[in-house]
Design a protein that fits this description.
The protein has 9 helices and no strands. By secondary structure, the protein is mostly helical. The two termini are about 25 Å apart.
Amino acid sequence: MDVPALVHGHFRAFLKAAKHLDSGKEKGRSEASVHKIRVTLRRLDVLFGLLDGLEDDRKFQKAFRRQKRLRKGLGRVRDMDVHRVQWKEWAERRPCFQAVDQEIVRKREKTLRKFLETFEPEKVRKAARRAGRAVTGRKVRADLPSLVNRILGDRELHEVRLDVKRLRYSLEQLAELRNRSGDGKVAFLKELQAELGRMNDLEGLASFLTRLRAKKGEAWSRATAAGVEKAADEIGNRLKTERRLWDKLWPERRKKLKGLAA
């Protein structure tokens, strides 16, 4: 597959999923639909990063900034989806469950509505056409060793998670361009991404609950407020356990990552 065809394929998938998102039907607005759009936009982002010379194309960069704004806006909806799944796992049978669940649903609908108010399909189609022209004839310049070295550096886990995701998507995009299937490298990166994602989700939910407790605590019953505070503490403790396990396994995984840079 050539680069323009891959770009247009991603944009078509994005527009199709976004159409369902704007349909008003519950199924179209599901957590899976939002996640699909986010992944499609992230893959586009990674694909553009693999190509030579795009940073000097001003028209392309304008279209690219629009795409990033869309992904960022929908990311807030995705955060609420993740919070809700995690909250159900932690507190479904607790008295405090309903109060927090209602807040998550309310915030999700608000952020989704804001996203849809600014989403203009025709401008996305225009950006797709512009991107297709911009990438035509570009050389692939995948500098995977540099990306691996960034992951191996002494950085925050959130940044490591994003770079692991970028490395995985880079390998997958290169495989599509070369008409090859993925390999064990992608499976290994998926494993790392899942673990880093789980820690990120726990940290995000604990932070969300703490802020919500401070904002809504006086309006809640004493039992609800105490339950939310306790859940935030328990999630924080789980995060510490997950982090210790990550630190224990990191030396071995670091060696495997170094092998990807070879």
